[in-house]
Amino acid sequence: QQPVQSPQAVILREGEDAVINCSSSKALYSVHWYRQKHGEAPVFLMILLKGGEQKGHDKISASFNEKKQQSSLYLTASQLSYSGTYFCGYGNNRLAFGKGNQVVVIP
Amino acid sequence: EPEVTQTPSHQVTQMGQEVILRCVPISNHLYFYWYRQILGQKVEFLVSFYNNEISEKSEIFDDQFSVERPDGSNFTLKIRSTKLEDSAMYFCASEGQGTNEKLFFGSGTQLSVL
């Protein structure tokens, strides 16, 4: 089973904030976030482990709520470089990704 | 930062032909993966490999697919008889010493089946 990501696409202006979400129908023990730019491989952003912790990568942070079986990624003061497709994934030994959230940051 | 290397970057083949996609994972990593991505779609898990055997495989990874680590450094994906729907970007990834570590992805092989 794959995670469900929403919204499918976000367009925002440089400097604006956005939240993208990842949810699961089954219990989560960890969530991975990756970003993929067009024509490139996915690049690791962060892993969140059970415990509701928040992590950060530059001005991108994320939370993980294992009770709600969901994770949210927060893009703060977005930069043009944040554009790309964000994939969340979970599962040991067979990381399954959702369909992605396409983020477009415009000047 | 260490890199996962994939060759070739592009592969064009005729339907029914066999192809081998090659990957050199990061040297001290223990877990290896193949993913594929059809144009514009999500990254789909194919297979994971640990200790010289398959750990997990998806429904996509049928009898036409096989993986091998022939010499302790290369990690290969073979598609025995390619179909048109096998056209996709194939990514190799490796992971370090344990679970819940980050995956390092290679830059991919674009496979086109004609």
Task: Give a structural overview.
The complex is a heterodimer of chains A (107) and B (114). With 107 residues, chain A is mainly β. In chain A, 0% of the residues lie in helices and 55% in strands. Chain A contains no helices and 11 strands. The mean pLDDT of chain A is 88. Chain B is mainly beta. In chain B, the strands form 2 sheets. In chain B, strands 2, 4, 5, 6, 9, 10 and 11 form a 7-stranded mixed beta sheet that branches. A 4-stranded antiparallel beta sheet of chain B has the order 1-3-8-7, with no helix packed on it.
Task: Chart the SSEs and their pairings.
The complex is a heterodimer of chains A (107) and B (114).
Chain A: E1 4-6, E2 9-13, E3 18-23, E4 30-36, E5 43-49, E6 54-57, E7 60-65, E8 70-75, E9 84-90, E10 96-97, E11 101-106
Chain B: E1 5-7, E2 10-13, E3 19-24, E4 31-37, E5 44-50, E6 53-57, E7 65-68, E8 75-79, E9 88-95, E10 104-105, E11 109-113
Parallel strand pairs in B: 2-11
Antiparallel strand pairs in B: 1-3, 3-8, 4-5, 4-9, 5-6, 7-8, 9-10, 9-11
How would you sum up the global shape of chain A? globular
Globular, elongated, flat, extended or rod-shaped: what is the shape of chain B?
globular
Report the strand count of chain A: 11
Give the DSSP E fraction of chain B (strand runs of 2 or more residues): over 45%
Rg of chain B, Å, rounded? 13 Å
Share of helical residues of chain A: under 10%
Span between termini of chain A: 37 Å
Average pLDDT for all residues of chain B: 92
The description of the largest β-sheet of chain A is: 6 strands, mixed
Label the structural class of chain B: mainly beta
